[in-house]
## 1
Amino acid sequence: MNGLEIVPLRLTHVDAVLDLGRRVFDVAAMPYTSWSLSSVAAHWDAQPDACWVATDDTGLLGFVLGSLSYDRREDWGYLEWIALEERARGRGVASALVEHCCDALFTAGASRVITDVESGNEASAAMMRRNGFTEGVTVSLLVRPNPHVQPASGQHPAQDPARASLRRVARGSRTP
């Protein structure tokens, strides 16, 4: 990982961020959330200084997206999305991203920053604990599927319609 940099999210990073998120996030585990261009844009629009990427000479290593306000608590920051390429894991990249995001949220007025980690994701939970997060509230998501509808086999998630347009814009803009 030569040339590691933690830099603010830019338009030129968005396509790689979307790709990494699609590979890493299991939105089926938390069906009340989704991963799309809208997910990135909402954070970037609301709190651009809390959205960071890690890059090296080979490209994107990871990203973090945060925003000020969580639910009805406008004084709480929310570190909602963080992802790393496999080659960046165990090298402090996630911790650097967490620090940049949290610093921005505290500077913007957050009295605390919260995050959530899927119950079986021990590596992410341990990384968050190493970065000063502690368990607060545990919630169990209970699901009741419709017994009259069978899920289609091989069903793929819906594609984000704005993605192709974004790619054209990002490729046309070579600003780092």
Note: The mean pLDDT is 84.
## 2
Amino acid sequence: MADQDPTTPLPGGEGNGGNQPEVAALAQYIKDLSVENPSSPQVFQWQEPPQLDVQFNINVNRVADDVHEVVLKIDATARSQSGVHFVIDLSYGGLFALRNLPEEALGPFLLVEAPRLLFPFARQVIASAVQDAGFPPLMLDPIDFGAVYMSQAQAAQGGEDGGENGGSIPGAGEGPSLQ
């Protein structure tokens, strides 16, 4: 997938008259991964269960005329009164070729559908990283990217200045952004 040329026709693009919307996932990859286990080895003797804080952010960058990079950033921290159990920071990216998409469809695709496609793979990376740090795997609950997108669209229409947009699992955090 990673070696597809963004200048070649997308799958199914032949014979469509050149004006039909086309979308293709070209690649997906770990852009950045940080795993911290700052309280080891003591953490493995603590009896209290940690509280989990998970936040996410979506960034979109135009790579070429018809190619966009979508990066799903997930930060997970487990803490208890004894201290920090683990910290995982993952930036998981995907390259998407988009041709003949109406301008009003770009945001919904790049901030809802693309992250939805990337999330299961990012979830597996996080589960494996937490397990490799010596803890039970962390299986994140699915994220409703559509609901986050809609709430931010409503906030933008209402003229609210939310600063960092809500996009966490659960609690406050960062949200999607187009760049």
Note: The mean pLDDT is 83.
## 3
Amino acid sequence: MTDPAPSTTTAGARGRHRHQAGPAIAILRGGTGEHVEDVVRTLVEAGVLAIEITTNTPRWREGIAWAVDRYGSEASVGVGTVMDTRQLDDAAAAGAVFAVSPHTDPVIGERAHERGLGWYPGAATPTEIVRAWQLGARAVKVFPAAQLGGPAFLRQVLAPLDFVDVIPTGGIGLDDAADYLAAGAVAVGLGSPLVGDALHTGDLDALRVRAGQLLRGLPR
């Protein structure tokens, strides 16, 4: 599954991007590397069809390649915490279709465009958000969303910046993810509130329950 084409900068056209695999992106970070495949399988089978595997997860390259090979036709698989172009190149070679960074680096953005990956750079302030969008972001990762003020912050920022597609991440819980979408986000990214300790312990039953709880609260 490929990431959708970049949207225009026409003001007032919210909802153009809408991450093709759905409104929730599962962020897999850390662990031992032993349970990555099982966690991906559980999430996809539960209906979470956008998977971000970060570069500070052991065996992240192998995890991306496995997920793309197994689920690439039904889920979007991307890389997170991209800090340089080498990591982006490795992720592209593994089959990732989108790349996420905690910051905005135009060099990474340019390489993402060259490799055909959707680029989701991190930003916090209105100035940073607009700058990331002007540099060609497919969507801007608003981070850390909860600490910045949550859905209320997002709603205020998007009042004048309604032409920007944003994906808030950081501190978003299972029960408030829908509030971010209602505030104007095109998708939300969830790490530990969704994944929990599954990457460390392999507890897939609890992961399956959390995934169901999340999806029941989100619009389709």
Note: The beta strands are 24-28, 50-54, 76-80, 98-100, 118-120, 122-123, 140-142, 166-168, 188-190.
